[in-house]
């Protein structure tokens, strides 16, 4: 078992859970931030597990290359520092440069 660096669950799903209950299942969005200790196999395994268990969107943030890779379904798109990610889950565009600001 592992935890994503960042996870997001839509309010509609969270509201379905009682006060004394845990949210079951996968969050809608997971974000993994690459570090030198990550292997390609490890990240690919995490992405496969997430997508097979109901995740809508899986983001890989690469601080070294200042790039974000977004997988939704069978499609992965790569966004450079000057791009914006159109995130339907958030209902907004996310400028990639904002992700890398300290």
Give a description of the structure.
The strands form two sheets. The protein has a five-stranded mixed beta sheet, covered by helices on one side. The chain has a two-stranded antiparallel ribbon with strand order 6-7. Helices cover 22% and strands 32% of the residues. The protein starts with 5 loop residues before the first strand and ends with a helix. It has one domain (27-99): tt1808, chain A. The mean pLDDT is 88. The protein has 102 residues and is an alpha+beta fold.
The structure class reads alpha+beta
CATH topology: tt1808, chain A
Largest sheet: 5 strands, mixed
CATH class: Alpha Beta
> What multimeric state do the chains show?
single chain
Please provide the count of β strands.
7
How do the strands line up in the largest sheet?
A: 1-2-3-4-5
Estimated helix fraction: 10-25%
Kindly report the average pLDDT value: 88
């Amino acid at each position: 078992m592992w935890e994503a660096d960042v996870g997001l669950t839509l309010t509609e799903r969270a509201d379905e859970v009682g006060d004394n209950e845990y949210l079951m299942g996968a969050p809608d969005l997971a974000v993994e931030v690459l570090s030198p200790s990550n292997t390609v196999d490890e990240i690919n395994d995490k992405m496969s597990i997430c997508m097979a268990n109901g995740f809508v969107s899986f983001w890989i943030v690469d601080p070294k290359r200042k790039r974000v890779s977004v997988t939704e379904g069978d499609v992965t798109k790569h966004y450079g520092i000057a791009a914006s990610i159109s995130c339907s889950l958030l209902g907004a565009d996310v400028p990639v440069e904002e992700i890398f600001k300290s």
